[in-house]
Amino acid sequence: MVTLAELEEFLGGRLLRGDPATTVSGVAPLQRATPAELAFVADKKYVPRLKDARAGCVLLREAWADDCPVPVLAVDDPYLAYARASRLFEDSPAAPGIHPSAVVDSSVRVPETVQIGAHAVIEAGVELGEGVVIGPGCFIGARVSIGTGTRLMPNVTLYHDVSLGERCRVHASTVIGADGFGFARRPDGWERIAQLGRVLVGDDVDIGASVTIDRGALDDTVIENDVIIDDQVHVAHNCRIGARSALAGCVGIAGSVTVGADCTLAGQVGVSGHLEICDNAHIAGQARVTRSVVAPGGYSSGTPLEPTRQWARNAVRFTQLEALQRRVVELEEALATVQAADESSDSRSE
Amino acid sequence: MVTLAELEEFLGGRLLRGDPATTVSGVAPLQRATPAELAFVADKKYVPRLKDARAGCVLLREAWADDCPVPVLAVDDPYLAYARASRLFEDSPAAPGIHPSAVVDSSVRVPETVQIGAHAVIEAGVELGEGVVIGPGCFIGARVSIGTGTRLMPNVTLYHDVSLGERCRVHASTVIGADGFGFARRPDGWERIAQLGRVLVGDDVDIGASVTIDRGALDDTVIENDVIIDDQVHVAHNCRIGARSALAGCVGIAGSVTVGADCTLAGQVGVSGHLEICDNAHIAGQARVTRSVVAPGGYSSGTPLEPTRQWARNAVRFTQLEALQRRVVELEEALATVQAADESSDSRSE
Amino acid sequence: MVTLAELEEFLGGRLLRGDPATTVSGVAPLQRATPAELAFVADKKYVPRLKDARAGCVLLREAWADDCPVPVLAVDDPYLAYARASRLFEDSPAAPGIHPSAVVDSSVRVPETVQIGAHAVIEAGVELGEGVVIGPGCFIGARVSIGTGTRLMPNVTLYHDVSLGERCRVHASTVIGADGFGFARRPDGWERIAQLGRVLVGDDVDIGASVTIDRGALDDTVIENDVIIDDQVHVAHNCRIGARSALAGCVGIAGSVTVGADCTLAGQVGVSGHLEICDNAHIAGQARVTRSVVAPGGYSSGTPLEPTRQWARNAVRFTQLEALQRRVVELEEALATVQAADESSDSRSE
Fold first, then answer.
1. What is the average pLDDT value for chain C, to the nearest integer?
2. Given B29, B311, B345, which is nearest C300 (Cβ)?
3. Which of A120, A335, B158, B223 is 20–30 Å from B168 (CA)?
4. What are the tens digits of pLDDT across the range C284-321?
5. Are the Cβ atoms of A231 and B214 closer than 8 angstroms?
């Protein structure tokens, strides 16, 4: 429960209407928010809906306040204010302490503010910052370093020598530091290359569930500060993901790729190995990146969804495109011949 | 071991030939089924193979019975009958009981018919129906509800407040209820939006291994009854998947997507955020869905597989398609001019 | 720490320069390798960089030795030699023994050379070869067989009756033997088909993190010897992956597919069900395989990455390709008419 006065102070906005002592206990979409809940309007197009609002308070821009029949907290960026306010209503992790079933190597110093869940395993030489939370069933390999305030959800695996910065979050079943996919060909099979690098994750990095980030072969795999990574993403060995970049669900990045700062890779984007993607590149969903991207902006590949029968005809024509192009060239040449003949015949007939 | 008489009663078919007391102890493909095994023929094209059958009994349509030299159990839908019969020969989970290494919060009432595996963790306020099976290493967050007869395989993670219906199955390493990928942009990074919704899964839902289904931001993510989901699928926050729809391996669905009832999304299909897919839509493998689908039927995107050298030429031409189109338009115009000139010259020469 | 003499003997090369008693304690890229580290040059184009080398020893071809100012170990295949040498500097698993928190069924014979990690669960009838390592949190189902020297990283799940050969490695959170995605349609939903086959994995198979390999429906899913599989790959039921084939990250293979020997499927390749891919086929990243591949060689599909604005115009034209083709045919016919008319008019005018 939070009072509107507390919200005003926390968000740095201005309470235009409503009793500062009123409390809200959650957030809800504008249409169904009750007087006990906070709502928000972040886009002008939803302002007309304000007239039916019943929320205990609405976060919005001051210019829209007159359209709102219920208490208003005016802020510059209502969506950002909603994001910050939402965190007040989130489940907090359990109290600090080490669950008796956890297996923690005797070499590990565990600050009193740390919480280690049931059946977690922490190997020798691990360093844990203040307020770290290790979920149940996590495995933390030897010499891993986890910064202050970082939280691992259940069943996360961190291989040896991985380093996570401060205030990171890693969701369930994610694996950081598994071997990169490195093999040398032998006549009779594959010779595995030991992956001797590490994974270095910066501060304020958010990593989804079932993500895999592989350790480097010789150098390290690096995730810079403020990167956000959605579920089921794969980052291969020796990649570097630049600050504030966002990798959406199911993105796959092959080895030794550098992604710049402030990039977005939408869902299922695939990037081939050894490429560079410059800062501020925005790659659309399912795009196939097989060359470096050297200029900022939006990029796409693929073809639009069509009814299968119609698609099948066009798809066959795609496989004949080179031939079609040649036919157009031949047409252009033949037509030019006809035109030339016509002109000469015209001039003859004049 | 099941007798043919028991099979006849269980499947509701008609034993046309064979001793009702004969037993079978498994199912096998027609060609290698021994007299101790059950086989089936579901498609007319395999009827000619019946003459070599050695199975203890064959499930088939009554019309095909005369072609079968071994005992026959005639049924209306042999494939469905095989599906039902196959379950008689499956490994059953171990006996009910709570493994001593499991960590179960004292607030949780565990029915006597429930089985909780080794090293499972069950947090406060969890509700478990009769006959629930929680595999070893599972994590069940606070206030989760699991319906009668639902079974979780090992190392599944259910975050707090997730609800699973009755008779569901969830395979290993799957994560339900992790945070949706929701962030507001700040000038210097991302502000995480707390994901305050839940995941609600209906009855008879089958979920594969390494699947991720994220909790909603404000509203809930909903999986309706009888949905089937293959391995490695990702369902983002606030999606709704309609009854009886099937999501094949590696499908990725972005946030706030509604998939109708009786849809099939084949392997690796990707769906962009905030779209609606109507009932009875069938999306082909790897298709790229970036607009809502408003009519039932089959949909596809992409290009066919080609030898790389040939593909590369066609792919370059794809990037010149707009230019090629313009050249065709110019050709049409130029030809029309020639035709007009020819006609006028013809009329002049007449 | 390894001496150059030991390296020479282990790799079968020839130490051309340097004190055999010199030791190296790691491997590093040529440019930053210190005198305490080993480096390598596998490609002629990097030979000019040798002049600045400070490494304790460089693996290279004898022909390049004169360009190298530091000790040289000459080998036939420097990349393969690097692969083999890299393994000398890898973390080795902990000492053999069964962690007291592991739950091992009393029927299981555990050789003294085996290591079983904390919170691992081993069910009845499991067979473990010499030197097997089971990571913390792994689940090993009933009657699983694991060959000599095979190593499972943390939180791996092997379902009942799975068989792994010798010297395999399986990375964290991987699931082998979950149910294949098999259902028969009922009017009101889906009837699950029990998956009664197994997964059989050969020798020297390397499997990445968060991989899923499903058990067969009636027959077995088979991974042959020396196959290498990257993270997040999905192999569905009843597939067979041929010897020495490589599946890169996020590949998805539908049911009953046969991949031949010595194939490579690059990242995010998708293969539809019931296809056959012949030996020595090499499928480019994100390709969409919907027909069997019957000839060795390289294959691709998809379209190149383009700036989104440009792509959007071309993509629309793709959906009109059949119409464009028709327009070209019509142009050809119209032009032929004009040409015929011109010729007849020419002949008339002569």
1. 96
2. B311
3. A120
4. 999 999 999 999 999 999 999 999 999 999 999 999 99
5. yes
Mutate to test the interface with C, among B119, B167, B299 (most CBs of C within 10 A): B119
Enumerate neighbours of B (3 or more CB pairs within 8 A): A, C
Given an 8 Å threshold on Cβ–Cβ distance, is B335 in contact with A335? Answer: yes
Query: What are the tens digits of pLDDT across the range C137-194?
Result: 999 999 999 999 999 999 999 999 999 999 999 999 999 999 999 999 998 999 999 9
Parallel, antiparallel or unpaired: strands B72-74 and B14-17: antiparallel
CA distance A260 to chain C (A): 17
Nearest chain B residue to C197 by CA distance is: B28
**Model confidence band, residue B94 (pLDDT cutoffs 50, 70, 90):** confident
- What is the 8-class DSSP label of residue A256? T
Active site residue B237: yes
User: Chain A contacts of C155, Cβ < 8 Å?
Assistant: 137, 139, 155, 157, 173, 175
Give the rounded percent of residues in chain B with a pLDDT score beyond 90.
Answer: 94
pLDDT band at B92 (very low <50, low <70, confident <90, very high): confident
Find the CB nearest A83 among B192, B290, B331: B192
* Contacts with A136 from chain B: Cβ below 8 Å: 103, 121, 139
Number of Cβ within 10 Å of residue C13's Cβ equals 22
CB contact under 8 A, A320 and B314: yes
Q: Which of B171, B234, B237, B282 is catalytic?
A: B237
Angle at B205 between CA B201 and CA B207, to 5 degrees: 95
Give a three-class secondary structure readout of chain B.
CEEHHHHHHHHCCEEEECCCCCEECEECCHHHCCCCEEEECCCHHHHHHHHHCCCCEEEECHHHHHHCCCCEEECCCHHHHHHHHHHHHCCCCCCCEECCCCEECCCCCCCCCCEECCCCEECCCCEECCCCEECCCCEECCCCEECCCCEECCCCEECCCCEECCCCEECCCCEECCCCCCEEEECCEEEECCCCCCEEECCCCEECCCCEECCCCCCCEEECCCCEECCCCEECCCCEECCCCEECCCCEECCCCEECCCCEECCCCEECCCCEECCCEEECCCCEECCCECCCEEEECCCCCEEHHHHHHHHHHHCCHHHHHHHHHHHHHHHHHHHHHHHHHHHHHC
**Residue B191 pLDDT grade (very low, low, confident, very high; cuts 50, 70, 90):** very high
Kindly provide the ipTM of the predicted complex, given to two decimals: 0.96
**Spatial distance between the Cα atoms of A344 and B186, rounded to a whole number of angstroms:** 69
Classified as helix, coil or strand, A191 is strand
Distance separating alpha carbons of residues B219 and B196, to the nearest angstrom: 8
